[in-house]
Amino acid sequence: MPATILVHEAAHYLGYIAFGLPNPTLAYAFSGFEGMQSFWQALNSGDTEAARAIAPIVPVGITALLGVLATLAMGMLGIWALSARDSLVGGALAFTALFRSGAIALLYVAGNPENSDEAHIAITLGWPDVLLVIAGVLALTLTGWLLYKRFDWKVLMGVALGSGASLAAWMTKIGPMMLP
Questions:
Q1: Is 35 left (phi over 0), alpha (psi -120 to 50) or beta?
Q2: pLDDT per residue as tens digits for the range 135-177
Q3: What is the DSSP letter of 20?
Q4: Of 26, 32, 28, which Cα lies nearest the Cα of 2?
Q5: Where are the domains of the chain?
């Protein structure tokens, strides 16, 4: 799970650099640029001119999309490895990369999606966020089905527990030590 988080955030970060956004930062569970919080507050309140004064709107949307695409690419790579080679590592990669899609879907169900990349893509690029969520959930469902068909439930529990343990270790100890 830490690798998927890091690749996701690194995709955003590289986009910030490529588009020349002010003072990009990369941390263990976050990437951003100077003024990012004010940018989103202005844009969410409908003040596009104030947001545009901080950063160009479309490039910020593209950087949000880059993180989602990086995560989906890792998930698809994992699905390929799982289906072509019965790779447990591929299954773990697919599960952890696409688990994010399920979490985002839960945010939408709970009515609190505004800090998700999908919501940021919708507001900056005009894409329907629900379609992005559905695509992610479908990919996660495919992964779950492939894992169920290929491996014993004990192995699947190991993947889930290992993913959870690695996430906890990354978020509390390893990540802050490596990328404060």
A1: left
A2: 777 877 877 777 777 777 777 777 778 777 887 888 888 888 8
A3: T
A4: 28
A5: 2-178
* 92 and 162 Cβ atoms separated by less than 8 Å: yes
Looking from the CA of 176 toward its CB, the CA atoms found within 13 Å total: 5
Alpha-helical runs (H) found in the chain: 2-18, 36-44, 48-54, 57-85, 88-110, 117-125, 129-150, 153-169, 175-178
Angle CA 107–32–143, to nearest 5: 45
User: Is there a contact between 46 and 59 (Cβ–Cβ < 8 Å)?
Assistant: no
Model confidence pLDDT, tens digit, residues 91-142: 777 777 777 777 777 777 677 677 788 889 989 999 887 787 787 778 778 7
**Nearest-5° angle of CA 177, CA 37, CA 18?**
75
